[in-house]
C-alpha cells in the first residue's frame, strides 16, 4: 500500500499522543472485545481500508468469531450482538455520523442502561480516537482504485 506521507515520521509527538490515549483506553474498564467492535464499525463507516484490515485482525487475534465480524456491518438486523454491544454500536454510529442532539440524548440513555459514567466516557473516547485514526489512515494511505466491471 502506498503512502502519501508518514504521520509517525512527520509528526511523531502527535501520533505518540494518540498512542498514549489508546494505551489508556486499553487499560480502562471497557472490554477489549467491545473496543474491537467499536473500532471496526467506525472504520467501516468511514471507509478506512487500512483500519478495517488492522482491527479485523486484532479482533480475530483476541478471539472474535468470523461470523460476528461478518455481521458487524449489519448489526442492527443481526441477533448475534448482546444488548450492551448494540447500545455501544448505536452510540458509535451516531457519533461517527454526526447524529442530531435528540438522537444522542436517546442513545445516551440506552448506553447508560448498560454502562456506568466512566465506561460511557471511555466508549466515547474510543469512538473519538478511532475516528481520528481513520482520518489519519485515509489521508496517509493511498487506496487502490476501485475495479471497473467491463
> What is the chain-wise order of helices and strands?
EHHHHHHHHE
User: What kind of assembly state do the chains in view correspond to?
Assistant: single chain
Number of strands: 2
Shape: globular
Count of discrete domains: 1
The portion of residues assigned to helices is 55-70%
CATH topology: AhpD-like
* CATH hierarchy: architecture: Up-down Bundle
Q: Give the class-level CATH name.
A: Mainly Alpha
Secondary-structure content class: mainly alpha
Mean pLDDT: 92
Strand order of the largest sheet: 1-2
Number of contiguous helices: 8
What Rg, in angstroms, do the CA atoms define? 16 Å
Major sheet: 2 strands, antiparallel
> Which parts are unreliable, with pLDDT below 50 for 5 consecutive residues or more?
none
Task: Tell me the β content.
Answer: under 5%
CATH superfamily: AhpD-like
Distance between the termini: 25 Å
Written overview of the protein:
The chain has eight helices and two strands; from the N terminus they run βααααααααβ. With about 150 residues, it is mainly α. The protein has a single domain, classed as AhpD-like, CATH 1.20.1290.10. It has a two-stranded antiparallel sheet with strand order 1-2. Helix 2 packs antiparallel against helix 8 and helix 3 runs antiparallel to helix 4. The longest helix is centred in the C-terminal third of the chain and has 24 residues. The two termini are about 25 Å apart. The mean pLDDT is about 90.
Amino acid at each position: 500500500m502506498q503512502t502519501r506521507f508518514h504521520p509517525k515520521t512527520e509528526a511523531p509527538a502527535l501520533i505518540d499522543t494518540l498512542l498514549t490515549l489508546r494505551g489508556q483506553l486499553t487499560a480502562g474498564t471497557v472490554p477489549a472485545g467491545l473496543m474491537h467492535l467499536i473500532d471496526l464499525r467506525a472504520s467501516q463507516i468511514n471507509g478506512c481500508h487500512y483500519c478495517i484490515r488492522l482491527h479485523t485482525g486484532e479482533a480475530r487475534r483476541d478471539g472474535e468469531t468470523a461470523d460476528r465480524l461478518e455481521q458487524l456491518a449489519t448489526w442492527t438486523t443481526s441477533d448475534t450482538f448482546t444488548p450492551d454491544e448494540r447500545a455501544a454500536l448505536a452510540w458509535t454510529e451516531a457519533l461517527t455520523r454526526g447524529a442530531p442532539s435528540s438522537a444522542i440524548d436517546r442513545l445516551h440513555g440506552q448506553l447508560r442502561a448498560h454502562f456506568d459514567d466512566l465506561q460511557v466516557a471511555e466508549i466515547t473516547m474510543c469512538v473519538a480516537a478511532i475516528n481520528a485514526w481513520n482520518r489519519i489512515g485515509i489521508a496517509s494511505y493511498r487506496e487502490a482504485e476501485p475495479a471497473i466491471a467491463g
